[in-house]
Please model this.
Amino acid sequence: MARVFNWQIGREMSYWYPESRPKKQFAAIFDINKCIACQTCTLACKTTWTSGKGQEYMLWNNVESKPYGFYPLAWDLKLLKELGPQGWERGAYQGRTIFEAAAAGERVLGWRPTDLDYANPNVGEDDCAGVIENGANLTVPHAVWFFYLARICNHCTYPACLASCPRGSIYKRPEDGIVLVDQGRCRGYQECVKACPYKKVFYNPMTGTSEKCIACYPKMEANLQPQCFVNCIGKIRMAGWISRPEKAQADNPIDYLVHVKKVALPLFPQFGLEPNVYYIPPVHVPVPFLHQMFGPGVDHAIQTYRAASADPDLAGLLGLFGCTEQVVPRWRRQGDAVIGMDESGREILRVPMREPIYILPAFDARYGVVRTNCP
Amino acid sequence: MRNPMQTSMTLILAKHGLPSAIVEALHLQAKQAPPPSPWMGEGGDGGEKFDDPTPTSVLPRQRGRNVCCGLLLLVLVVLFLGACGQRAPAPTAEVVVVSRPAIPADPGDAAWQDVPVHASPLLLQDMVEPRLLTASTGGVHVRAITDGTRVAFRIDWKDGTKDDLPGAARFSDAVAVQLPTTAGADAPAPQMGEKGRPVEVTFWRAAWQATVDGRPDSIAELYPGASVDHYPFDAASLEKGSKVQQEMAARYAPALALGNRMAGPRERPVEDLVAEGPGTLTTAKATDSNGRGRRTETGWSVVISRKLPQGLEPGKRSQVAFAVWEGSHQEAGARKMRTGWIPIVVEAKK
Model:
């Protein structure tokens, strides 16, 4: 094993291959607070990529309710249990990653779901974390909680799938950091299925190979955001490129939210993969639960997000989410407008900080009708 | 329960190369598992003994013979033995490829009966991650026949579970034969060869055998209750089998589109591969080999036939290795039971 640096856990760690970062790294931000679990992203992906034979059960994108929703069943709890209690200290992870906790003879600590684990993709949907007592009424903060977690492949900097493949059939593209299974070379050993802690590689019994989210790379190559991003009803997602923390650029939307404002956090950073989908954590959920899921940056992220209304840059940038199919690698705020730009600084789109309000008279004289907003 | 008396009788008979139907009849009377092999090997974990799973059990089963018939046969057998004094070939220390006018395609072919058996224990693949650290299959019994240009191996091993369905966390039983591309005593590393010194591997898989034997590749075969609304490439507007339809189907099966042999179409239950070390296994330009596997009462009996490797002619020697994957033990790829190199000699043409 080589020694590599993982900035998300603030230390060096062991990995099967030496550190080799791509020229650009695909990254995404999901604002959990805006997700309504409509599953439009799931269907957008499903119809685009996994309508084939053997792909029936595959959900490269899924949305599950936390704490009781999982796809596959208990994907996170099983691994957390196997890993055992671990700790953080002053932002640095003191425990073992899944590479460091691998048993003798293994490359990665993992487990392999069976078909039964995939049988209930909507298990736990909308289930609250707790019982609603008789007489309970709506208060803030809520007495009980749940939230929606939309998930795709994290296109990790240190992918466990890639590390686990004994024949090098999985590769991370040097040009954009997207992780792919070489469908010409894979022999379906399912080592990657076992190793990926997020369970985002799926075995196709009809082709005898394992398949996974490809970050819609044909679209990303054309500077277009993936299908699950552009079809998102809640506009919770933004795709782009992330820099290493020491090279963060404030005019890069992903860098700004992850490195500058630190409002978006990796999912289970303690596993050690340096995942590249970053989540703005839900503000209404008990922090200890979120600590386990998103690491020690949760308190700061929630505080920052709650204060976004007083931070025009942050609030403005969040307004760019879901407003264009194009990838927006640069941005700036100009007064009451937020401008998305391409790499050369050319304007792609301009979004007002606040949508203008139009007040129409109750009676439309032109058409001679009474306007009403009541059914 | 095993009847020790009958066991020893069938054992003696098998050892003396009796006509298989006679041995079979006695076997069936005993209504028991085949007898333990006279040639026992050490299991991969250093302790487990493995039995010969092969004797006649791949032949068609004939039930309902009565004890009288068996006794009569026994008398005949004893007379026969006394008359000819013939003995079955003793287990060999190496794989002896016997010369015959033709190579049998089926493990149940009578041509296998007088072929010497090499019994080899299997070792854990515990050299390269991911390793197999818990032993499964104890050993293999190997027979080999050549017709001068091709060689057929019959490999038998014990396996209590039939694993031939594909699926998530499901693995197929499988076996492979490995030979150095260039025959000779100085073989490359037995672990899949070395850079610049390749090995040739022929791989048989139970799931492929099931497909070749007629099981359709569809989700309904795996899950009889499954219902699928629609596959885009099966739309009524597309003429089935047309170029447009097939192109569309390939778009939803990238491995197939790229010509990955794992994705089929499957005409043979075997695949030819080459390797130059662990992790380098690559599909050969074409699969020339063939195979046929059958489930026996105790496990699998598989014939793998291929052309004799370069330099391995009648009268010449080389090395051969075998590997077995136990599906119910989640074995695939590097996680396997295997042999080291075993000397192989091709009998001179008779």
About this structure: Chain B has two domains: 4-215+266-346, 219-257. Residues 67-84 of chain B form the longest helix (18 residues). Residues 1-49, 52-70, 77-86 of chain B have pLDDT under 50 and may be disordered. Chain B touches chain A through 47 residues (CB under 8 Å).
